[in-house]
Amino acid sequence: MQITVRMPNAYGNKLDKLSKQMGMRRSDIIRLAMKQFLEETSEADRRPPYSKVSHLLGIVESEVKDLGQSHRKYLIQKVRKGSR
Predict the structure, then answer these.
(1) Angle of CA points 37, 52, 47, to nearest 5°
(2) CATH number at residue 3
(3) What is the DSSP letter of 83?
(4) How many structural domains compose the chain?
(5) I need a surface site. Which of 24, 49, 78, 84 has the fewest CB within 10 A?
(6) In this structure, is residue 81 part of a structural domain?
């Protein structure tokens, strides 16, 4: 299949530079980028929402012991503090 893509000049310039550095044709680089994007996107779509963010859970400490139970209270306090 053949496809035509319009892109900003800056992308084209970077693509030309990368093409020369890697000794590859621009179309080969674009195919590799599309392959990676499509594989990552299709894998991500099949995962349940929890698994998409599980690596982020538990990595931040707020030092607020009841944040999970009283998150609304703390959010309102934060909003009120910011509007002053």
Answers:
(1) 75
(2) 1.10.1220.10
(3) T
(4) 1
(5) 84
(6) no
In terms of Cβ atoms closer than 10 Å to its own Cβ (0-12, 13-18, 19+), residue 29 is middle
> Given this model, what pLDDT does residue 20 score?
97
- What is the Cα–Cα distance from 33 to 38, expressed in whole angstroms? 9
* Contacting residues for 25 by C-beta, under 8 A, at least 6 apart: 19
pLDDT digits (tens, 9 = 90+) for 17-76: 999 999 999 999 999 999 999 988 876 567 788 887 888 887 777 788 888 888 899 889
**Residue 67 has what pLDDT?**
80
| Cα 6 from Cα 37, distance rounded (Å) | 18
pTM assigned to the model: 0.51
Q: Is 69 among the domain residues?
A: no
- For residue 9, give its domain range: 1-48
